[in-house]
Each structure stands twice: as C-alpha cells, then as structure tokens.
Task: structure prediction
Amino acid sequence: MHLYFQDESRFGMFTKNGRALTVKGVKPICPFQQVFKSTYLFGAFSPITGDKFLLEYPNCNADIFELFLNELSKENPIELKVMVVDNAAFHKAKKIKIPDNIVLIFQPPYSPEVNPAEQIWAWYKRAFTNRIYKSIPQIVDFISNKSENLTKELVKSITRQEYIFSNY
Result:
C-alpha cells in the first residue's frame, strides 16, 4: 500500500505577480502580460517515500482526471495506491472509472491546508512568479525543468505534515 496526496494546478501565460525586493519606498516594476492561455499539471505526491507522479494536460476535467488515474495505476500496478484528493466536482464525477489499484479518499471540504500537494504547487509558483512566458511550450519547459529538480528528499521535506506521521 502506498499513500499519495493528489492535486492539480494551472500554469498560464497571464503573469502571476508576486513580491519583489526593492529599496524601501520604491514600488517594484515587474513584467506583465494578460494572455489567457494555460496548461495544467496533475500531481500525486507521497510524503512518506518522496515518490511523485506528474503529468501535464491542456485541460482540467473529469476525463483528464480519469486519464491521470489510469496512468498512475500503471506505475507499479500490483501496488494499492491510497490517494487523498480534494472535493473538486470532477473528482467525484459518476462517469469516472477508478482503476482497481487506486482508492480515493476525499479530504474535508474547504480545507486545502490538509493537502501537502498544495505546498508542492507553492514551490513551483514561487519560481513562476513575476515572469513572462510567451508560449505554452515555454511553460511546459519550465514545468519539466522544475520537475527534474523535485527530488524524493525535496518532496518529503516540502510535504511533511505532522498529522501524517503521528502514528509512525
């Protein structure tokens, strides 16, 4: 059995502005563009082993979630994967066929703080902030490069939450 926390995040060409370091009293000037094209990164992360499973898709809906589950189920197919997910409507869609080696557990409503996957997205987004991406392939390159640097040890350190390890 293997425990995962799953979530998805949107990465778009619309500039995500954030904090910038400047002299006191000087308002930072950051690049900005308002383009409404994006891609989505689906991920499942294990705070216990540091394992990760990431796939980039052009949309975020029940059909894509089912594709993600099917691909995850092929990774070590004899292993039972217990996966904590949020209450997004497409996670609960009746038409989704959940693979036999995956069990979904729904986190309490409106409680993103209990999903360690949210901390992984924060790690990605810190590097994504205040930058201009001229195309979706540029964003996919960013995601790929960042994902290569997401080691097992880093996943464990980012996703470690005391409630997960209280019985170990």
